[in-house]
Amino acid sequence: VTHSIPACIGSMTINGKQLDNESPVSVFAVNKCYKTVQDGTFFDGSGFAALVREGYKVRSDVNITLEFRTTAAHGVLLGVSSAKVDAIGLEIVHGKVLFHVNNGAGRITATYEPRGTNSLCDGKWHKLQANKSKHRISLIIDGNLVHTDNPYIQSTSADTNNPIYVGGYPADVKQNCLTSKSSFHGCLRNFVLTKGQHTELFDFSRAFDLRGVFPHSCPGAEH
């Protein structure tokens, strides 16, 4: 076995002596355990997960689905960019969800704003679907659809070649379709990207870079 165990371990003794878990000599990718746990990945608000080291190519079409839970009004959900202006981005800003797309001619944004006292930052699970089909983009939150007009109808392909950054991104990485630098604080699950007939469910434990992200378990309530 060459990989770590996604589990909680406690009350370990060696030769009758209990190990001190509170002040270890060194720690790597170990988080506290929770009394109540849900499936998903916990983002502690300090970092990000980086997927597809060789770069993800959005091009003309992509459908993004995920579920999120947070009590924060700001946070990056996803960013895929390029060295040029082509990019896509999903973020929570002032409690609204924004889906940005730039196919090279200019950024367009679909914005979902909760009505009345309904909040997306209530610590409950919310379903998100963001779709880009050539120059058209749409956003569905908890079954509520938002369309946006795109004046750049001739520009249809987002020629991205950078990794997928989820929950934030490194300070030295440029993101052309994100306005926020705030890392996401909360839980994500069921993160799926679909292109045509190809559907990919991403496992955050397989990310090539994880900072402040803990796969496989979310605290049952915000900690």
UniProtKB/TrEMBL annotation:
InterPro entries named among the record's database cross-references: ConA-like_dom_sf, Laminin_G, Neurexin-related_CASP
CDD domains for the chain: LamG
Name all Laminin G domain ranges. 38-218
Name under which the protein is recorded:
LAMA1 protein
Annotated gene = Lama1
